[in-house]
Amino acid sequence: MKRSSMSGLEQMSLLAAGKVPPPSIALMPGESYGTVDLSVKLVRPIPTGVRLRGEGKLMNLSRSVAISQGRIVDDSGKLYAHATCTCMILRPS
Ligand SMILES: CC(C)(COP(=O)(O)OP(=O)(O)OC[C@H]1O[C@@H](n2cnc3c(N)ncnc32)[C@H](O)[C@@H]1OP(=O)(O)O)[C@@H](O)C(=O)NCCC(=O)NCCSC(=O)Cc1ccccc1
């Protein structure tokens, strides 16, 4: 069956992958992060065959928590989905 749009899970995966810049760019050697929360809003179906762009921004970085936002847009800037992600910074003890 030929599909005309992406599933919610596919869109979420795209957003999760696109939660760029990941907190890792702000991490020191030896540090890592774990995703605590990922909130996704799918505002219109994504048709197949459309070129999309994933955009991400690190909104805030505290000692223990990184908050980033991501969005999926097409070439004209039309918004398809956006997400907010909260990650815990994990430091070696
Ligand atoms: C339907 C709603 C949740 C709410 O919209 P509303 O508050 O009623 O606002 P409004 O009417 O202003 O429309 C806003 C934009 O949405 C578009 N559109 C609206 N209805 C339909 C439709 N029946 N079919 C296609 N497109 C529709 C509409 O053209 C407009 O886009 P445009 O400005 O012309 O480019 C919308 O945000 C949406 O489809 N999100 C993505 C959901 C998704 O992909 N989930 C992934 C899992 S798949 C799933 O869940 C199954 C499912 C898929 C689609 C629908 C139902 C079930």
TrEMBL record:
NCBIfam families the UniProt entry points to: unchar_dom_1 (TIGR00369)
User: Can you provide one Gene Ontology molecular function annotated for this UniProt record?
Assistant: thiolester hydrolase activity
User: Per its UniProt record, what InterPro entries does this chain match?
Assistant: HotDog_dom_sf (IPR029069), PAAI_dom (IPR003736)
Q: What is this protein's record name? A: PaaI family thioesterase
The organism of origin for this protein: Marinobacter confluentis
Q: Which SUPFAM superfamilies match?
A: Thioesterase/thiol ester dehydrase-isomerase (SSF54637)
